[in-house]
């Protein structure tokens, strides 16, 4: 009997391990299908609570001049978000869409302040923010991990 209990426990552990691997693979595939979304695990388009973003609409918005500053997103960040006009401006291309959406929401609400970004974001709708985040999140990334960079 002790062998039967041991075999039963081993079977349960193996089943649980296989289930975890399967779930992990599904989340990876969902993430790949949803460019710029950090995980794809929530079944929604954004952890920021926003509607699904549309890349083509985001590209149009990125090229449009804002009323507040007369600048467009690409004027400062580059066509794919990878060529900022100043080293202090972030590269947006390939960044997580959720991060971009949260940042734009913070500029819009005043929780985050920047002389150009705050007025640019002030009149963006939730859909605009989702579209811009989807566009820049879908662009090629030139971001790099700074984990092991030493001064």
Automatic annotation (TrEMBL):
Keywords: Electron transport, Heme, Iron, Metal-binding, Signal, Transport. Transmembrane segments: none annotated. Residues 30-63 are annotated as: Disordered. Residues 36-49 have a biased composition (Low complexity). PROSITE patterns: CYTC (PS51007), PROKAR_LIPOPROTEIN (PS51257). Residues 53-140 form the Cytochrome c domain. Residues 1-24 form the signal peptide. It comes from the Bacteria. InterPro entries: Cyt_c-like_dom, Cyt_c-like_dom_sf, Cytochrome_c_Oxidase_Subunit. This is Cytochrome C biogenesis protein CcsA. The lineage of its organism: Bacteria, Pseudomonadati, Pseudomonadota, Gammaproteobacteria, Lysobacterales.
């Amino acid at each position: 009997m002790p062998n039967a209990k041991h075999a039963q426990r081993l079977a349960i552990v193996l089943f649980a391990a296989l289930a975890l691997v399967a779930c992990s693979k599904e989340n990876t595939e969902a993430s790949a299908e949803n460019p710029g979304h950090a995980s794809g695990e929530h079944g929604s388009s954004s952890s920021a609570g926003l509607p699904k973003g549309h890349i083509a609409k985001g590209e149009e918005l990125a090229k449009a001049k804002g009323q507040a500053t007369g600048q467009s997103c690409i004027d400062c960040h580059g066509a794919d978000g990878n060529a900022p006009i100043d080293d202090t401006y972030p590269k947006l291309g390939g960044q997580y869409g959720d991060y971009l959406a949260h940042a734009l929401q913070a500029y819009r609400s005043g929780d985050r302040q920047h002389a150009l970004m705050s007025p640019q974001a002030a009149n963006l709708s939730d859909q605009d923010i989702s579209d811009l985040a989807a566009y820049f999140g879908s662009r090629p990334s030139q971001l790099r991990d700074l984990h092991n960079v030493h001064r």
